Structures are given as C-alpha cells and as structure tokens.
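User: Run a structure prediction on this.
Assistant: Running it now.
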Amino acid sequence: MNMVIRNGVVLSMDSNKTVYKKGMVIITGDTISYTGREESSMIPRTSEIVDAKGGIIMPGLINTHTHIGMSLFRTLADDTADRLKKYLFPLEKKFVTPALVYQASLYSLTEMIEGGTTTFADMYYFEEKVADAAVKAGIRGILGESILNFPAPDSKEPYGGFVYTEKFMDSYSGNPLITPALAPHAPYSLDYNNLKKTAELAEKWNIPVLSHLAETPFETKQIADEFGLSPVQLYSRAGLLTPRLTAAHCIYIDDHDIDLIKHSGTGVAHNVAANLKSGRPISPALKMFDKGIPIGLGTDGPMSGNTVDIINLLGYTAKIHKLDNADRTVMPPEKVLEMATIGGARALHIDDKTGSLEAGKKADIIIVSTDSTPMFPIYDYYSAMVYCASPRDVNTVIINGKMIMQERELTTLNKNEIKTEAAKMVVKIKKQLEDY
C-alpha cells in the first residue's frame, strides 16, 4: 500500500535544504519512495492520500537525549541545589519500579508524539520497559540501560547495567524500531576499568553508547584531580570517544576537547533548556556545529527540562546562541531545524535511515499546520518553525510508514487511559512523599 502526502510545503532537510513550495512525498511500505514537486501523474492508483492542507511537510523531530521514565516526578525539587545527589538518586531508589517506568514512558511518549518527535534516545532504569512502551506507541528509539558504580533501582549490585543490557539486546534483537545501547551514566559514576569495559562491549556487541559528558563542575574537578584530564580526554583514553557514542551536554569543554570530539566521530546532544534551568554555562554547540561535529537537540529528562518536546527548544536554541555571541546573525533558523532533524540523526549515527525526506529513507514524517494565529503570515518557513510554531501545531505524525497521529488524534495510544493510570501512580507517590 502506498501513502501519498500532498498539498503542502516540503522542507526536505536534504544536503541542499531543498524546499518544495507545492510538494509531495510518496511512501511505499515503511520507506520514502519520492520527495519532490507534486505531480498527479506520479500518484500510484492504489494510494492512501493524506492532504497536508497547505501545512509544512518535514522530517520528524529527533530528541537525542532524555530520560522519559522520570515524567511522573516532573516538578519535584525544581531549583533545588545539588539536586542530583541529594534528591534525585535517593528518590529513584525509593520509587522507581518497572511499572512506574512503563507508565511514565507511555505518558512521555504521548507528549513527544503530539509534539512531532519520531525518534528519541533514552537512558534510564528498566529500559526494556521503555522499549515496550515505545513499541506500543510505534516510535523509533535508541535506548540505553544506565550503568553506574552503585546499586540502582533495577540492580542490587554496582554495574548491573552490563548484565541488563545483554538481556535487553536479546529481547529486542532485530526490532525495526528499537536499538538497544550501552549507557555509562557519566565519567564520575563509573571507574576507569568499567569505562574501558563499556567501550570493549560496544565494539563486541556492535551497539551504540549513550552517556552524559562534561556536564557539571564537580565532574570536571573530580576527573582533573584523579586523572589530570578533562572528561572528554578521559573518554578518549578509555576508548569511548568513537562514532558509536552520543555524548549529552558537553558544556565544560575547550578547543582541544572539541578537536578530540570532531576527529573521533562522536555525536553530541545539545540540551539547551535543561542546561539553562540548571544555571550552567552555554555549551559551545554553535562552535561544534560549525566545525562539522554531528550535533542534535535534546530535552534531557522531564525533571530537568520539564517538557520532552523538541519544538519548545527551537527558539531557545537560536536566541541563546545569539545572546552568547552578541550577534543576531548566528544560529539562523536553518541551522536550528537542521539540529532538530538530520543533525539529530547524525548525532545518533542513524542519518542513513532517518532525519530527512529523501527516497530510500524510512518514512518518519510530520505535518505541521499553518492554521494557528502565530503561524500567519509565513514568508520564511524555517523561521516560522523555529520562532512561531508550538507543539500544538503538529497535525500528523507518521513513523516507519505508519500513521501514529492524524488530525491531532493518536492512533496507537489511548491518551485518556494513560493519564488515568499515571494519575493513580502520582497519588501513591504524593502519599509516600509526605513521609519522605
């Protein structure tokens, strides 16, 4: 069966950033077979026609770093000093279960899909439950089980994430939507030998690696005191800085670190809103982008950035780098939207599969309506997406050739049921927190 998306403006995000003002995309099975000008003669006879109604047809958005199993903790301990060690780790130890991670993931995925995200990279606990939720939703995921040097909610022993990852790989081997990954939490939460072990296993198992890197001042100090290196240099020495790695944050880095990242082929997840909320410096993401480093946008977890949709990040990304450089011409909308689509695919090392609307790539496509008040008039479609659009403007979401949301109605998830079940868990959490 063919699906034809017509009557819209196509932002292809190909290497030339080709825009088709009267464009059309043809999907055959799970794959794009044509992107270009609308030609009625090219429409196969047996086709499902999707009318874009003058909207923007573009690649689905890619969230390169998040922790969606945390969504039921959203707004807890916001703006608390040293929240990670004093609040978050103990909170997770007390409350995180497979059932909570599954329900929280379904809730986050509802938000993601409604905001046009078609691929996400996640690292958390009970990651197989995140995968179960993602398959139910029909969304593409690179999913990593967290590995730490202390007992975690899903492991009574330190470094239990290695064993969990191997089982996770077996469960999801060959799944068209799910790619299991190794997820060493950070340079400060694994010892050097286990960082090396992660690199060796990634090579042996031929899977990606997701990790926080150069995110915090205490991380930078700890690694400098122990090794005389920066966190990036430590990962390079341990063999982790490779085209398998997607490193989240990369805030506390210098030019030497940037060169190491570039020459290694490592991808970077730029979490602009979460970093701002944490009061941290602005990542040199623009410099990395301009040097050709694969870089995409990430929301971080729902306790860090609070929302898990990418559209809310677009304007932040453009404006904060203009402020940082005191130059309104830097980080134009075309660059921002590149980071949100094909740039994110490059950062996750899947740009051969998704991130742009080109024949041969998987059909991960969204239609953004131009009917809302802020979306009129439009002289520049990139500018409209970055500075005017909101998640509520996303009308249709197609992932792997399957209709996941149509006319704002989810087709794979029951939003009301998910929220009802999530609310029951939140009541229990609130009750337990009274004595916490």
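The CA atoms of residues 193 and 262 lie 24 Å apart.
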